[in-house]
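Entry 14. Structure prediction run on the chain below.
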Amino acid sequence: MELISLYKDYFSLTEECAMMQSGGMEHWGERLKTATDEKGWTAAELSRRSGVPIENIKKYIQGSVDNPRGNVIAKLAAALDKPAVWLSHGEAPSPSDVRGGPISVPPINPRSVVELLGVTRGGDNGWFELNGQVIDRVPLPPGISSADLIFALYVSGDSMWPRYEDGDLVYIHRDRPAVNGVDVVVELHPASDGEVGHSLIKRLVKRTSTQLVLRQHNPAKDIEIALPSVARVFRILTSSELMGVK
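Output returned:
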Protein backbone atom coordinates (compact mmCIF):
# COMPACT_ATOMS: atom_id res chain seq x y z
CA MET A 1 0.00 0.00 0.00
CA GLU A 2 3.05 2.34 -0.19
CA LEU A 3 1.97 3.44 -3.67
CA ILE A 4 -1.50 4.41 -2.46
CA SER A 5 0.06 6.28 0.45
CA LEU A 6 2.04 8.40 -1.98
CA TYR A 7 -1.13 9.16 -3.91
CA LYS A 8 -2.77 10.37 -0.70
CA ASP A 9 0.04 12.66 0.43
CA TYR A 10 -1.39 15.66 -1.39
CA PHE A 11 -4.89 15.04 -0.10
CA SER A 12 -3.65 14.57 3.45
CA LEU A 13 -1.86 17.93 3.27
CA THR A 14 -5.03 19.59 2.01
CA GLU A 15 -7.07 18.13 4.86
CA GLU A 16 -4.47 19.18 7.41
CA CYS A 17 -4.69 22.75 6.12
CA ALA A 18 -8.46 22.59 6.48
CA MET A 19 -8.10 21.44 10.07
CA MET A 20 -5.71 24.32 10.77
CA GLN A 21 -8.30 26.70 9.37
CA SER A 22 -10.98 25.35 11.65
CA GLY A 23 -8.70 25.70 14.65
CA GLY A 24 -8.84 21.97 15.42
CA MET A 25 -10.96 22.75 18.50
CA GLU A 26 -13.84 20.30 18.09
CA HIS A 27 -13.00 16.63 18.44
CA TRP A 28 -14.35 14.48 15.63
CA GLY A 29 -16.18 12.38 18.23
CA GLU A 30 -18.42 15.40 18.93
CA ARG A 31 -19.40 15.55 15.26
CA LEU A 32 -20.03 11.81 15.33
CA LYS A 33 -22.41 12.23 18.28
CA THR A 34 -24.15 15.17 16.59
CA ALA A 35 -24.71 13.24 13.36
CA THR A 36 -25.91 10.16 15.26
CA ASP A 37 -28.36 12.26 17.29
CA GLU A 38 -29.64 13.90 14.10
CA LYS A 39 -30.57 10.44 12.82
CA GLY A 40 -32.23 9.60 16.10
CA TRP A 41 -29.98 6.55 16.41
CA THR A 42 -28.35 4.88 19.34
CA ALA A 43 -24.74 3.76 19.25
CA ALA A 44 -26.03 0.22 18.74
CA GLU A 45 -27.99 1.25 15.63
CA LEU A 46 -24.98 3.07 14.19
CA SER A 47 -22.90 -0.04 14.82
CA ARG A 48 -25.44 -2.22 13.00
CA ARG A 49 -25.56 0.07 9.98
CA SER A 50 -21.83 0.79 9.71
CA GLY A 51 -20.32 -2.52 10.77
CA VAL A 52 -18.14 -0.76 13.36
CA PRO A 53 -18.16 -2.44 16.80
CA ILE A 54 -20.35 -0.65 19.34
CA GLU A 55 -17.53 -0.63 21.91
CA ASN A 56 -15.39 1.37 19.50
CA ILE A 57 -18.21 3.77 18.64
CA LYS A 58 -18.70 4.57 22.33
CA LYS A 59 -14.98 5.33 22.64
CA TYR A 60 -15.12 7.62 19.59
CA ILE A 61 -18.11 9.55 20.94
CA GLN A 62 -16.36 9.94 24.30
CA GLY A 63 -13.36 11.45 22.52
CA SER A 64 -10.99 8.68 23.59
CA VAL A 65 -9.64 8.02 20.07
CA ASP A 66 -8.10 10.78 17.94
CA ASN A 67 -7.22 8.82 14.80
CA PRO A 68 -9.12 5.55 14.27
CA ARG A 69 -7.36 3.00 12.09
CA GLY A 70 -8.33 1.86 8.60
CA ASN A 71 -11.52 3.09 6.97
CA VAL A 72 -13.56 3.51 10.15
CA ILE A 73 -14.39 7.16 9.51
CA ALA A 74 -15.45 6.39 5.93
CA LYS A 75 -17.79 3.63 7.16
CA LEU A 76 -19.35 5.84 9.82
CA ALA A 77 -19.72 8.76 7.42
CA ALA A 78 -21.41 6.56 4.80
CA ALA A 79 -23.88 5.21 7.36
CA LEU A 80 -24.67 8.73 8.59
CA ASP A 81 -24.91 10.27 5.08
CA LYS A 82 -22.12 12.70 5.89
CA PRO A 83 -18.89 13.55 4.00
CA ALA A 84 -15.93 11.70 5.48
CA VAL A 85 -13.85 14.90 5.45
CA TRP A 86 -16.50 16.70 7.51
CA LEU A 87 -16.60 13.90 10.08
CA SER A 88 -12.83 13.71 10.40
CA HIS A 89 -11.93 17.44 10.24
CA GLY A 90 -15.12 19.52 10.25
CA GLU A 91 -16.01 22.37 7.93
CA ALA A 92 -13.35 25.06 7.70
CA PRO A 93 -14.24 28.79 7.67
CA SER A 94 -13.32 31.08 4.84
CA PRO A 95 -9.53 31.66 4.63
CA SER A 96 -10.15 35.38 5.17
CA ASP A 97 -11.53 34.57 8.65
CA VAL A 98 -8.36 32.81 9.78
CA ARG A 99 -6.29 34.79 12.25
CA GLY A 100 -2.89 35.68 10.83
CA GLY A 101 -4.04 35.63 7.21
CA PRO A 102 -5.24 32.99 4.80
CA ILE A 103 -3.70 29.55 4.44
CA SER A 104 -3.03 28.68 0.82
CA VAL A 105 -4.57 25.33 -0.14
CA PRO A 106 -3.62 24.11 -3.63
CA PRO A 107 -6.60 23.75 -5.96
CA ILE A 108 -7.70 20.23 -6.84
CA ASN A 109 -8.50 19.37 -10.43
CA PRO A 110 -11.84 17.49 -10.32
CA ARG A 111 -10.68 15.28 -13.19
CA SER A 112 -7.67 14.12 -11.20
CA VAL A 113 -9.72 12.35 -8.54
CA VAL A 114 -11.76 9.15 -8.40
CA GLU A 115 -15.06 8.60 -6.60
CA LEU A 116 -14.78 6.44 -3.50
CA LEU A 117 -17.96 4.40 -3.04
CA GLY A 118 -19.28 3.32 0.31
CA VAL A 119 -19.84 -0.31 1.26
CA THR A 120 -21.87 -2.03 3.93
CA ARG A 121 -20.08 -4.93 5.61
CA GLY A 122 -21.65 -8.31 4.98
CA GLY A 123 -20.96 -11.77 6.32
CA ASP A 124 -19.84 -15.20 5.14
CA ASN A 125 -17.28 -15.42 2.31
CA GLY A 126 -16.50 -11.72 2.69
CA TRP A 127 -19.59 -10.45 0.88
CA PHE A 128 -20.59 -6.81 1.20
CA GLU A 129 -23.08 -4.38 -0.32
CA LEU A 130 -22.16 -1.49 -2.61
CA ASN A 131 -24.48 1.19 -1.33
CA GLY A 132 -23.81 3.45 -4.33
CA GLN A 133 -23.02 6.48 -2.17
CA VAL A 134 -19.94 8.56 -2.96
CA ILE A 135 -18.31 8.98 0.46
CA ASP A 136 -15.09 10.67 -0.62
CA ARG A 137 -12.67 11.19 -3.50
CA VAL A 138 -9.17 9.78 -3.87
CA PRO A 139 -6.33 10.69 -6.26
CA LEU A 140 -6.34 9.40 -9.83
CA PRO A 141 -3.29 7.14 -10.28
CA PRO A 142 -0.72 8.32 -12.85
CA GLY A 143 -1.20 5.30 -15.10
CA ILE A 144 -4.89 6.07 -15.66
CA SER A 145 -5.66 8.72 -18.28
CA SER A 146 -9.25 9.43 -17.24
CA ALA A 147 -11.31 9.04 -14.09
CA ASP A 148 -14.57 8.57 -16.00
CA LEU A 149 -14.47 4.75 -15.92
CA ILE A 150 -12.76 4.32 -12.53
CA PHE A 151 -14.12 4.05 -9.01
CA ALA A 152 -12.53 3.02 -5.74
CA LEU A 153 -13.66 1.28 -2.60
CA TYR A 154 -12.29 -0.05 0.66
CA VAL A 155 -11.90 -3.80 1.06
CA SER A 156 -14.34 -5.16 3.61
CA GLY A 157 -13.21 -8.15 5.66
CA ASP A 158 -10.13 -10.36 5.47
CA SER A 159 -11.26 -13.16 3.15
CA MET A 160 -8.58 -12.13 0.62
CA TRP A 161 -5.75 -11.76 3.14
CA PRO A 162 -2.78 -11.53 2.61
CA ARG A 163 -3.52 -10.16 -0.87
CA TYR A 164 -5.80 -7.49 0.61
CA GLU A 165 -6.32 -6.49 4.22
CA ASP A 166 -9.52 -5.12 5.69
CA GLY A 167 -9.62 -1.40 4.85
CA ASP A 168 -7.22 -1.55 1.88
CA LEU A 169 -8.04 0.82 -0.97
CA VAL A 170 -8.58 -0.72 -4.42
CA TYR A 171 -9.25 0.91 -7.80
CA ILE A 172 -11.79 -0.69 -10.13
CA HIS A 173 -12.21 -0.23 -13.90
CA ARG A 174 -15.75 -0.42 -15.22
CA ASP A 175 -14.84 -1.51 -18.76
CA ARG A 176 -11.55 -3.41 -18.77
CA PRO A 177 -12.20 -7.12 -19.33
CA ALA A 178 -12.11 -9.39 -16.32
CA VAL A 179 -9.95 -12.25 -17.56
CA ASN A 180 -8.97 -15.42 -15.76
CA GLY A 181 -6.32 -14.82 -13.10
CA VAL A 182 -7.22 -11.23 -12.16
CA ASP A 183 -8.87 -9.95 -8.99
CA VAL A 184 -12.44 -8.82 -9.47
CA VAL A 185 -15.48 -7.30 -7.81
CA VAL A 186 -18.48 -9.51 -8.53
CA GLU A 187 -21.88 -7.91 -7.98
CA LEU A 188 -24.83 -10.27 -7.67
CA HIS A 189 -28.48 -9.68 -8.47
CA PRO A 190 -30.55 -8.84 -5.36
CA ALA A 191 -32.63 -11.60 -3.83
CA SER A 192 -35.78 -9.48 -4.19
CA ASP A 193 -36.93 -6.13 -5.58
CA GLY A 194 -35.87 -3.11 -3.56
CA GLU A 195 -32.84 -4.80 -2.06
CA VAL A 196 -29.14 -4.40 -2.87
CA GLY A 197 -27.30 -7.38 -4.29
CA HIS A 198 -24.29 -8.83 -2.52
CA SER A 199 -20.78 -8.15 -3.85
CA LEU A 200 -17.54 -10.07 -3.47
CA ILE A 201 -13.85 -9.35 -4.01
CA LYS A 202 -12.18 -12.54 -5.25
CA ARG A 203 -9.72 -13.92 -7.81
CA LEU A 204 -11.42 -14.98 -11.06
CA VAL A 205 -10.29 -18.55 -11.76
CA LYS A 206 -12.45 -19.24 -14.78
CA ARG A 207 -15.74 -18.49 -16.45
CA THR A 208 -17.77 -21.29 -18.03
CA SER A 209 -21.06 -21.25 -19.90
CA THR A 210 -22.92 -21.76 -16.64
CA GLN A 211 -20.85 -20.35 -13.76
CA LEU A 212 -18.03 -18.26 -12.39
CA VAL A 213 -15.33 -19.96 -10.36
CA LEU A 214 -13.81 -17.58 -7.81
CA ARG A 215 -10.95 -18.08 -5.37
CA GLN A 216 -10.47 -16.59 -1.94
CA HIS A 217 -7.37 -16.82 0.25
CA ASN A 218 -8.63 -16.82 3.84
CA PRO A 219 -9.67 -19.54 4.29
CA ALA A 220 -8.42 -20.84 0.95
CA LYS A 221 -11.23 -22.22 -1.17
CA ASP A 222 -12.96 -21.89 -4.53
CA ILE A 223 -16.50 -20.55 -4.80
CA GLU A 224 -18.85 -21.39 -7.67
CA ILE A 225 -21.54 -18.88 -8.65
CA ALA A 226 -24.20 -19.54 -11.25
CA LEU A 227 -24.04 -17.00 -14.09
CA PRO A 228 -27.75 -16.04 -13.84
CA SER A 229 -26.97 -14.76 -10.31
CA VAL A 230 -24.24 -12.43 -11.57
CA ALA A 231 -25.17 -8.81 -12.35
CA ARG A 232 -21.70 -7.36 -13.12
CA VAL A 233 -18.03 -8.26 -12.91
CA PHE A 234 -15.46 -5.46 -12.50
CA ARG A 235 -11.70 -5.76 -12.81
CA ILE A 236 -9.50 -4.56 -9.93
CA LEU A 237 -6.48 -2.72 -11.32
CA THR A 238 -3.02 -3.98 -10.46
CA SER A 239 -0.16 -1.77 -9.22
CA SER A 240 1.42 -1.94 -12.70
CA GLU A 241 -1.80 -0.75 -14.30
CA LEU A 242 -2.14 2.06 -11.77
CA MET A 243 1.40 3.24 -12.59
CA GLY A 244 1.05 2.74 -16.35
CA VAL A 245 3.76 0.08 -16.47
CA LYS A 246 3.30 -2.40 -19.32
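The beta strands are 113-121, 128-139, 150-154, 169-173, 183-188, 198-207, 211-217, 220-226, 230-236.
Filed with the rest of this week's runs.
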